[in-house]
Structures are given as C-alpha cells and as structure tokens.
Specification:
Layout lengths: L3 E6 L5 H10 L3 E7 L3 H10 L4 E3 L2 H6 L5 E4 L3 H13 L3 E5 L6 H14 L3 E4 L6 H12 L5 E11 L8 H17 L3 E9 L9 E8 L4 E7 L1 E13 L3 E5 L7 E4 L2 E4 L13 E4 L3 E2 L8 H15 L7 H18 L6 E2 L1
Parallel strand pairs: 1-2, 1-4, 2-3, 4-5, 5-6, 7-10
Antiparallel strand pairs: 7-11, 8-9, 8-17, 9-10, 11-12, 12-13, 13-16, 14-15
C-alpha cells in the first residue's frame, strides 16, 4: 500500500481531532500542520511529536511530500486556501461549509475537475451511523410519504465571529435533509436575533420547502442552556426521531399517525372521521462507530481509488445555496427566498 501524506491547515478546536484520526489510519502520515497561533502549534506538537508545525500555510500547501491538504479554518478563508491547494495539484479535504457563495463553489468544482483532484467537504453527519440508519428507514418506505422534518441544534456556545449560528450549526441539518430526501431545497424563510455583542445572528429559525414536497424547520442557537442535536421526521405511516445526544436511543421509530376515513358522506363532520393511531416504539440497533474516523477513511479511500466522495463539492454547494438564501431572507424581513 502506497503511503499517503496529508498536511493540515488549522489547529484550533477541531483541527487536533483530524490530526489524531488521520494519523491513526493505515498507510497515512500527517507531515505538517499550519496555524497562525504559535501556542496552538506548541500544544499540538507536544501531543504529536512526529508532526512538523508551522505558522506558514503556504509551506503546508507547497510541501512536495504532501498528497492532500486538509483545511480546518474559518469559513471566510476556505475559498482562497482551497484554490491554492488545488492549483498546487493536491487533493483537498475541507471543513463545512465549503465556502461563502455558490460562485466560489462553482470555481472550486471546476478547478478540481480540471486538476483531476478530489475535493471533499467535511459534512461529518453524513457518516454518522444514526443518520445512515434513518436514511435506510426512509428509503425502505416504512415511514410512508414524508410530510415534514424538524431539527433542533442548540448549545451554550461556542460563538463564532465569521458566520452566524445557521451557517455554523444548521449547515449540518441542511446536508442531512439533502441526503435523506434526495431532493433539492426550493425556497426558505428565516428569522434571526443578534443577542450577544456579535454582529451576527446567535439564534436563527428557518423553514425550507423541498421540491419533493416535505417542509423542514430548523432551530439553531448558540444561546441555549442545553446541548440538543435532534431531528424528527414525520411520515404518513410512521415517525422517526434521531437523537445524537442519547447513545442508547439514537434512532426511535414511532408507529404513530393519522388516517382519514375516505368513505363518501353527505355531512360536514369531516374532522370527526380522523383516526389517530399510536403503536409501538421501536429502537433499532445502531452500529457504534466514530463518524470522524469513517469520514477520514472515506477520504483516504477516495484518494486511492479516484472515486467521488459521498460529500463532494457538488452536494456541498447545495448547502451553501440554502445558507445564502437564508441570509437574504433575514435581510428581507423573513420573506421567502427562492433557492
């Protein structure tokens, strides 16, 4: 097996996790890690003595030993860094969201195609076993026609200074909806509040409709006493809840629903012919694997085989389009914006 060398840019909150994970994979070496903060590099160097550290991102990009570069930096830096890596003829792993605009996404997609390089985006929940299980349940038809989805993603911080709470948190949910529904978002309405001293929204509520019919609601907040990572999917036949905080009941299937007596009647008492049914609660077994390890291994496998990643830049662009439209909606008194 040919050994792959991966350099990383960004040693902040999430970067060390990628250093650890990539370093643990067979046939993979993390050679250089770049960050603007010498203290972060000093801490990382003490934990990973075999890794070279530098404050110069161009060193990690231009390193002749590197096959790929991972970008774990603020969203505002993603486009220029990814473009530089691709121009250096190296593969790219980049954290979500891919970039700030659809035009930037298009440029990166075309450049990756021109250079024949892999461009993978770290939408990590697409590699989460609970999310994959729900996808299997939806695709099986067990839930019936999907009516709506409701997502809550809250915590007390960490507050970002380059993107709002929707970009930071709900980018996960929009990627999940896209994966589950196999359908494009059609329009969105969003409202937000700047509660802290930041210039960006700390709490956002958004409603998005999909071409296949379902409507989805998202609540994203940095200002909440509880960490919640939960999505409810309501179908005509059954309902399912995914809860990332409860490992014992990550996926719960409810045999609940409403049916209508379709017989022809001359009276006007239609509401009295609604039949509510509640059945069993099923908690299917979900395989206990670390999503980050699955994600990193998938990137490595794509480098070796040339296959397109499950979370490629094309799917990531769709998430960016939803986020951009949400910002436009908030700037327009929550008016619906076409995507």
């Amino acid at each position: 097996m040919q050994k792959l060398t991966i350099n990383l840019i960004g040693a902040g909150h999430w970067g060390p996790n990628l250093v650890r994970t990539f370093s643990s994979l067979a046939g993979v070496k993390v050679h250089q890690v770049a960050d603007v903060d010498p203290k972060r590099l000093e801490m990382l160097s003490s934990n990973f003595p075999g890794v070279t550290v530098t404050t110069d991102a161009s060193s990690a990009i231009g390193d002749e030993h590197a096959d790929a570069v991972g970008i774990i930096t603020p969203v505002s830096t993603h486009f220029e860094l990814a473009k530089a890596v691709l121009k250096a003829n190296k593969h790219v792993f980049i954290e979500k969201p891919l970039c700030r605009t659809a035009a930037e996404a298009d440029e990166l997609i075309h450049l990756a195609q021109e250079k024949k390089r892999i461009l993978m985006v770290g939408h990590i929940f697409i590699y989460n076993p609970g999310i994959i299980k729900v996808k299997q349940i939806i695709d099986s038809g067990e839930l019936g026609r999907i009516i709506y989805l409701d997502a809550v993603r809250t915590n007390l911080g960490p507050i970002r200074n380059d993107v709002n709470a929707l970009w930071d948190l709900a980018s996960h949910d929009f990627a999940i909806f896209d994966y589950w529904l196999d359908s494009r978002a059609r329009q969105i309405s969003a409202s937000g509040k700047r509660v802290s001293e930041q210039r960006l929204e700390d709490v956002v509520f958004a409603t998005v409709s999909y071409e296949s019919g379902p409507v989805a609601h998202v609540h994203a907040s940095w200002l909440n006493p509880r960490k919640v990572r939960q999505i409810t999917v309501v179908g005509e036949a059954k309902m399912v809840v995914w809860d990332d905080i409860d490992p014992a009941q990550t996926v719960q299937i409810y045999s609940h629903g409403v049916t209508i007596d379709r017989n022809d009647y001359d009276d006007t008492f239609g509401t009295h012919r609604l039949k509510y049914h509640t059945g069993d609660l099923l908690v299917p077994r979900v395989q206990g694997v670390e999503p980050l390890r699955v994600e990193c291994q998938h990137f490595v496998d794509c480098l070796r085989t040339g296959a397109q990643p499950r979370t490629d830049a094309v799917s990531a662009k769709r998430v960016v389009e939803v986020l951009v439209a949400a910002d436009k909606s908030m700037a327009s008194a929550s008016a619906f914006v076409q995507i």
